[in-house]
Amino acid sequence: MATAGAPRRFCRCACFCSENLYVARYGLHVRFRGEQQLRRDYGPILRSRGCVSPKDFQQLLGELEQEVERRQRLGQESAARKALISSSYHPARPDVYNTLQDEALAPEFLAAAEYSTSPGADLEGLLQRLETVSGAKRIYRLPVLTAPFCQALLQELEHFEQSDMPKGRPNTMNNYGVLLHELGLDEQLVTPLRERFLQPLTALLYPDCGGGWLDSHRAFVVKYAPGQDRELGCHYDNAELTLNVALGKAFTGGALYFGGLFQAPSALARPLEVEHVVGQGILHRGGQLHGARPLGTGERWNLVIWLRASAVRNRLCPMCCRKPDLVDDEGFGDGFTREEPPVVDVCALT
């Protein structure tokens, strides 16, 4: 198990500014090193998806160059937003900023975590305490947050959304939502959730994926609504494991769908669809190809936590599939460290 100690310096891989750039208009993730490389590697598929004229290509080129510049500034700008929010923002629900209490967590989740830390706990016993969505894909579901806590958190998130505070994008594919570390919810909410409750479960469920060595995370809330983001193309997460918890509100549609582990999106034929249930969380491997179907009606807010283990990712960056080229970063960075990792097995990449 990962243990608490002196503060650690986390890093990102230099590939963050060149790999896995999402082009929403063409539903494509690309590697970008310049115009000639883009034409050579993606010309045919871009033309097949509607990028046909010189104007189309130049527009795409400009968008990718802007995205690279945005990523280069990301850590510094995020730290500045966090500092301003900390000094100037007045929460509507100060109680959600208190250290995570058991009362915020579903009884089933508490029971599963308690079992996982008990002497003799094993995978078979844990599986009796949660829902196996897919044994082959190792996707699981269980209640995580109580309805009152989901409502309180949503009230706070909406209050922040309506404020004049600066807001960062949750990730490179979602445009609407909240980065929890900028809002000040990382230390009091997400870190204890990961350390005290999630890691005992993931150590049993995913021992080969670093489930017992989680030492950082990236947590954000995504929002889907009419006139805003409505769906999410298929992708992988920059994480060893992912927890996705539906917070509300009332909505139809928006189901998650899953393919294979590190499956090429173009090969996705018969995905597994999983409906959201408010308060319940879906656990899956970060490399499991997945996406979200279009929202039907209403608003959907989800808490997403990318769970990371430096002992795994220090060997191989999940985004570029190479040994990471480390760059110092703010906060948890992308979960890489310069320390020699302990020896653990990693997920097979095929």
UniProtKB/TrEMBL annotation:
Q: Which cofactor does the UniProt annotation name? A: L-ascorbate
Please name the SMART domains in this protein's record: P4Hc
Ranges that cross the membrane: none
Keyword Iron on entry: yes
Q: Where is the signal peptide?
A: none
The terms under GO molecular function for this entry are: dioxygenase activity; iron ion binding; L-ascorbic acid binding; oxidoreductase activity, acting on paired donors, with incorporation or reduction of molecular oxygen
Q: Which UniProt keywords apply?
A: Dioxygenase, Iron, Metal-binding, Oxidoreductase, Vitamin C
Q: Where is the Fe2OG dioxygenase domain?
A: 215-309
Q: By what name is this protein known? A: 2-oxoglutarate and iron-dependent oxygenase domain-containing protein 2 isoform X1
Q: Which gene encodes it?
A: OGFOD2
